[in-house]
Sequence to fold (526 residues):
Amino acid sequence: MQKCERKHSRCSISNEYLPTRVIDVTSLTLRLVESKPTSTGTYAALSHCWGMCRSFLTTRSNLADRKSGFSIDDLPATFRNAVSVTKSLGIPYLWIDSICILQGDKEDWEIEGSKMADVYSNAYLTIAAANAAGDAEGFLKARKPEKILPVDIRFASSEKNIDEREIGIYIQPRCQPTTVYEPLDGRAWCLQERCLSPRILFFDTNTLRWECIEKGWFEAGRGFKRQRLIVQEVIPRLLYNGTISYVGWYNMVENYTTRAISYPSDKLPALSALAAYAARESNDKYFAGLWKGDLRRGLLWCRQVRRNFRAHEPSKPFEDVTKSLDTAIAPSWSWASFQSAIHFTVMDPSSTDLEVLSCTNVIDVSIIVPGKNPYGEVASGYLIISAPLISFATDIGWDTTDVSEIAVNRAWEHNVLLCPEQEEIDISVESSFDHPADIRCEIFGLPLTFSIDTAGNFYEEGDHIGRIKGDGEEWKIVHGIILCRKDDGGDGDCYVRVGCFRIHPIRLSDFMVRVTEMPRRMVKIV
Fold:
C-alpha cells in the first residue's frame, strides 16, 4: 500500500470528499457520521456479498441510534472483519452500503446510488470480502497452511576471525492468480465496485491479493499483471484515427451479464455508477445500457451460450430463457431487457470492423427514468430509425408447444429464415431469437451494419456460390435485428425486438440495390 501511494501516480485519489455517510472507526464505539458536502477525509469502502444476512441495516427509523454509536459486536462477521482491517491500516472511516444508505427508503437509495461512482473511485482502499458468500460468514478465515520449504544456506569465509554466515531462504510454489471462483466474482453489483476502485485488497480463499491500477501483488511478495478491468478501460475512448471505440464498454457488459443478480429490476441500477462515470468522461448520452454515439452497433447483441462452469460459478445467467419477463425492465432493443448472459456482435473476432449501413439512420431515442438516478431504472423508452425493413419467412412452424430445441439451446440457428427480397441470390440467413416461445407473429429484419466475411473468398457459378482461396472480390456479412409488429392501438410501424440476424455471403452492392428499391419507413421500436 505504501509502495503504491509513493510510486503510482495513476492510483492517487484526486478528490477526497467523504460520502454522505461514513462509519467512524477511530474509537471503541463506532458511529455513523453524516458529512457535509465539503467534508474531506480518508476512508475505506467494503465490497461484499450480502447473502441472506440482514441483521444490521440502517433505516430512517434507526438513523439517530446509528449516529449516537454502536458496538462492533452488534455487526455481522464480514462487517466486523472490515472494521478490524480498516483500523489496523490506520484509516479513520469505513463505508458499507447497507449501513451508510438508508434501507427501505427509495429516495435515499436512488440519491446515494447515483453517487456510487464517487464513493468507490474516491476511496483510499476497497476491501473485497471475496471469499464470503454472505455477511454472516466473515472473510478473515482460517486458511490451508502454505507449502513452504525452509532452506538454510551457509557461506564460509576465507578470512580469519570471521565466522560463517547463514541465510534462511523460503521456497514455495510459484504464485498464480487464484483459480478458485470466489463468491464475490459472481455478483453483478460488485463488478462496478471493482472497476471504479483505484486500490483493492482481496481476501481470497487461499491468499491475500492486492490490485491497484498499475500493479498486483500476492501476500508472498510476488507481483502479477492486473486481472480486473478498470474504469479507464471501460469508458468510450478516442482512437488515433479520430473514431471512438466502445469495445471496452461492450466487454464489461458481457462480463456483467454473466454474473448473478437477485432482482431483475436491479439490472441497470447495478451498473449506474459506471454509466455515470463513463457519461461524465466521454460526454456521450446513455440510454438503458447503450450509448448514442454507437447505437447501431450496440443494438447487435444475442444470447450467450455456455455449458461448462467452474465450481461455485453462477450458471443461472446461462440458463435457457424461452419467454420474456412479464414486466419489462428496459426497452426490447436494450440488452438489459434480456434476463441472461449476452454477447455483442462487435466482440466477435470476425466482426470487429463493423461498419454502419448508409440506408439506416437513427432519428430519435428516448427513455423515461422514474427515479432520481438518471442512470438507474427505466420505466419505458423508444427508438425511431429510418430504414427499409426486410421481410422474413420461416421454414419451420412456430409451434410453441414444442419449441425448436436447437433454437432454444443454441445461440444461432442456421438457415431457418428465408429472405424473399434476396431470393435470387444464394445466401444464408442465420438467426438468434431472444425468446423463441414468444415468436408468434410476422417478423421483419432491420439491417444495421456490415462486415467482411472472413470465412473466405467466393466465386459464383450459375446459382451456386463456392469458396476459393486467394485474392478476390470481398463478400460481406449484413447484420441486423429481427422485429415483430407491436399492437399498441393503431400505430402500424411500432415494433419490438425479438432477435438478430446475419445474411452472408453477399456483395454489398447487390444488397444495397435491393434495399434501395424498398420503401423507407420510420420504424419505432419499444
